[in-house]
Amino acid sequence: MTYEAFYEPAGAGRFAATPATAGPWDPAAQHAGPPSALLARALAAHEAVDGQLLSRVTVDILRPVPVAELTLRVRTLRAGRRVTLVEGIAEAGGQEVLHARGWRIIAPAEPTPATPDDGPAVPGPDSGTEPELWATAHTDGYLSSMQWRVVSGAFAEPGPARVWARPRIPLVPDEPVRPAELALLVADSGSGVSARLDLARWLFVNVDLTVTLHRPPRGEWLLLDSATTIGPHGSGLAASRLADLDGTVGEALQTLVVAPR
């Protein structure tokens, strides 16, 4: 089923989540990508300063986010001409579900010297294949609202993966998905595409998501070049290089809690 957008504006900082936001494990709970992207949208727009770009966003996931109406509250923690720190909170049903902080950094009139991209070259999405999804996944939600192209690795098999993704629908109606929003929308899938354990036996969920961009991604597609590392004490880390068709744009990190089902 195709939906018009991930969210419908409901006025006064409120957004009604559509079924397109539903994650792969519970149709009543959102994948963290869409609400993180919605917060990025709010952080970029709040008391905006001309020329500032959202360069880092950290999202703490306090509890599962229901497929329901979200209320966003945003405030400026540190205002400035060169840098601004903004904080956002998403609430559902009277409970805070996500906290986010974002640094906006000014883009100077004269471009700064850019370092060479030392990330590995990866074939584009046209060379990728449709993924084989997990047998038990709920697919009529976020998974089907995104287009996926697997270059290496596999969704349903453990190990690192390189996967291109782009949204089939906008975040909110009649708006393009902006670069930082695209990064947050896609980056939360890094731990899923690079899963290292059998999903039938192990639970591994991220408690946060940090995305740092050294430049805004260009175009519709974003690459997840992801790998997961798991320690012996119930914690793990999913690290993803983010890239567009022109090269690396940033990185994403997710802290994982790992436990037997």
- What does the average pLDDT come to? 94
CATH class: Mainly Beta
Q: Which structural class should the secondary elements be placed in?
A: mainly beta
Do you know the CATH architecture? Beta Barrel
Radius of gyration: 18 Å
CATH topology (fold) name: Porin
The share of residues in helices is 10-25%
Distance between the termini: 30 Å
Multimeric organization: single chain
Count structural domains.
Answer: 1
Number of helices: 4
Query: Would you identify the CATH H-level superfamily?
Result: Acyl-CoA thioesterase, double hotdog domain
Descriptive overview:
- By secondary structure, the chain is mostly beta strands.
- The protein has a single domain (7-107, 128-260), classed as Acyl-CoA thioesterase, double hotdog domain (Porin, Beta Barrel).
- Helix content is 11%, strand content 42%.
- It has 4 helices and 13 strands.
- Strands 1, 2, 3, 4, 5, 6, 7, 8, 9, 10, 11, 12 and 13 form a 13-stranded antiparallel beta sheet that branches.
- A hairpin with a 4-residue loop joins β4 and β5 (83-92).
- The two termini are 30 Å apart.
- Residues 116-258 form the Acyl-CoA thioesterase-like C-terminal domain.
- Residues 22-104 form the Acyl-CoA thioesterase-like N-terminal HotDog domain.
- InterPro entries: ACOT8-like_C, Acyl-CoA_hotdog, HotDog_dom_sf, TesB_ACOT8-like_N.
- This is Thioesterase family protein.
